[in-house]
Design a protein that fits this description.
By secondary structure, the chain is an alpha/beta fold. Helix content is 32%, strand content 15%.
Length: 226
């Protein structure tokens, strides 16, 4: 099998939910996705009490204090300060597609890093169609946290989704600095539109996720105004 054939196999054509939930609807779950913004501080007990907790990149370095320690899945794309990471035995949610990582200048190093770090733990690769759907509805390069929400909505189909630490909106807001808001060098298209992301997340409360109906209930700790 060639590299291109392997990438096609990993990225589609089937939605990720069809692969991971082949026997039908999963049982109700309360899933918490913890961003690295300060609003998560002091909510550790509530976070850790959820059925499934997802954290973002090097959360042990950048996340709020007293935001719990449970981590059933780590959302990242193959790099970060892993030397000081706490013990972790959960899933790896890769928030870029295989082809995106492969085409990065350090792509093969990232792929090796993901594989060696995960060892026997499950790895969920982001399908290309899911990335395209996010870009279509947001109009920009989605953040790691936004992709983590998409993976949770497609794979777990949670009864309740809890968000905290999702604070960034506009540059003049108090907590904009907790997340990367500048374009990547030489590529303005990678700029995250925090406001559009937050509005898309708020849509879950109204029964809509990326243009499709959803029954998931939303609880947002420290929900920003936008």
């Amino acid at each position: 099998m060639t590299t291109d054939e392997l990438i096609d196999l990993m990225e589609g054509p089937f939605p990720l939910a069809d692969i991971t939930n082949p026997l039908g609807e999963p049982p109700p779950m309360r899933v918490c996705i913890v961003g690295n913004g300060p609003s998560a501080e002091g909510h550790g007990a509530e976070i850790d009490a959820c059925d499934f907790v997802v954290r973002i990149k090097a959360w042990w370095v950048f996340a709020a204090k007293d935001a719990g320690s449970r981590c059933d899945a780590l959302a990242h794309y193959g790099w970060g300060n892993w030397e000081e990471r706490p013990a972790f035995d959960g899933e790896h949610w890769i928030t870029q597609t295989v082809s995106q990582i492969e085409n990065h200048p350090d792509g093969w190093k990232r792929l090796q890093f993901i594989t060696y770090t995960a060892e026997l733990r499950p790895i969920r690769w982001l399908p290309g169609p899911m990335w395209d759907r996010l870009v279509y509805h947001i109009g920009s390069h989605p953040s790691t946290g936004m992709v983590a929400v998409a993976i949770a909505m497609e794979t777990a189909r949670p009864d309740e989704l809890v968000l905290c630490g999702f604070d960034a909106t506009t540059e003049d807001a108090s907590f904009f600095g907790d997340a990367r808001g500048n374009a990547w060098p030489g590529d303005h298209g990678n700029h995250h539109d925090w406001v559009k992301e937050k509005l898309a997340l708020k849509g879950i409360r109204e029964g809509t996720w990326l243009g499709q109906p959803t029954k998931t209930k939303l609880e947002w700790i420290g929900e920003p105004v936008c």
